[in-house]
Amino acid sequence: MKNSDFTFETIQYVRPDLDALAAQIDAITADVTAATSFDAVKALMHRRDDVMRDAETMVTVAHIRNTLDTRDSFYEDEMAFLDNALPALQAHMVAYQKALVASPFRNDISREFGPELLTAYGREIAAFNETLIPYMQEEAALCTEYQKLIASAAIPFDGQTLNLYGIQKYFEHEDRAVRKEAFRLYSEFFSSHEADMERIFDRLVEIRTAMGKAAGFSTYTPLGYLLQGRSDYGQEEVASFRAQVKEVLVPLCEKLYEAQAKRIGVDTIMAYDENRVFPDGNAQPIGGVDELVAQAVKMYHDISPETGEFIDFMTGHHLMDLANRPGKAATGYMTELPAYEAPFVFSCFNGTIGDVGVLSHELGHAFAGYMATRSQPISEYTGCSTDIAEIHSMSMEQFCYPYAEMYFGDGADKYRFQHLQEAITFVPFGVAVDEFQHVIYENPGLTPKERTAVWHDLELKYMPWRKYDNDPFMERGGYWYHKIHIFLYPMYYINYTLTTMGAMEFKKRRETNPEEAWNDYLALCKAGGSMSYKNLLRLANLSIPFEAGSVERACGYARDILLHAIQKEQA
Ligand code: ZN
Q: Separation of 343 CA from ligand 1 center, angstroms?
């Protein structure tokens, strides 16, 4: 299938023959069990990679095209078919993994590929049994339903019909009344769909709890950890990290919002003021998709030879779709087309600084995928769990700071301040999302309204600055409904907050010792998922965020920059 002349549009979609694929995997599994030498096992492992590659590529193509236009019924039907059919394939994959774990050549496998491969297989074996398949199918269907509901938003405002991305742009508007009205309409979209979202999430909690029990646990949470690929930390470590955030970052965020109130001339920062960081407006990107991409091409050529080669590959093969259009899923992501060794980046640009975030964040993911695919010997190692992957993307955001003038002109300082402030204020919100999920899955019997009250309590704990100005739905906790990860990717969210720590460390090191920082970053990208979480951090000379004092150590540099800027403006 591999063809170096391709562009994304020219990739022909053919529904993968999943029955044939299952039979091929079964045959490889039988041969692994019968193999009499490690060389034979190794050849079979590479053969399994080859047979999976084309099918995975087709699944990804269908997914991308479905999100590019959620109204296109062909890809909608393909996704419905694949959502339903793919879980059955997992039984065949797990049988293959079991054969390798039980192989007399397992020591050779670990010597050749490193111990992480069989450890990861062990996790996947523990997280799977046949009884889970019907649950996984229903889970996928519910997640699709939530996504469609979110994408269906068509809010009439300012003479346009806006989706949720479009309306959020007005949260930065100079006129407070406009911001307030935009936020009210945003809130109203969720409150008017509350019954549907309650039903979808209630069933998801029920299904996931049953899955946890079917995997031998008392709740969903330990299964969620396994599915996130965690092998060297658990719930206690994560709780200790959340406690550090509460102690170190919540008071800092309160200071930042107090300063922001003074700066924009309001008594109290309301939810609809949080994105209005400056009185004369936030930094505006200097142009639309084409102009910004042209700047990104220059920037990546300046950062390093590797990033230069990468960005030429992305543009040359049309691997970014960034413009907002009706029917496009309101999301942003990076995915990969393994048969083409090609990342793909999806976003809906809305003319805010978030657009530049995509060109640094999602392209950071894409760069890491591009490097790992070309550095790792086996497909399992080309991707990694997001507690590492988000270091790739968030650090790239920091590495792009010196280039902010290219995107924002004389608004560059404002961009840097706002971006750094948001990187920090995000963390308490992120740990609140994580704690929310722990509470929900530990107490699956909560009613939907009780769950929403849990969110409200967590806002009081982690976001004491948050005020909704007489919005009863938000004031009883409705804000969590917008968070797609809570529906689609359980136990994932903490990763963004853990990785903020890595990004803040890289930020400091890139400014104090640029060459060493870049080399460590490159090593981390190339390593993909070939080691455990803590070992990858050690490889990149990053600290372990669960250890006492680590949040202070990681964020102290950024805090000094922010507080210094505030001091200067108030002097
Ligand atoms: Zn990301």
A: 13
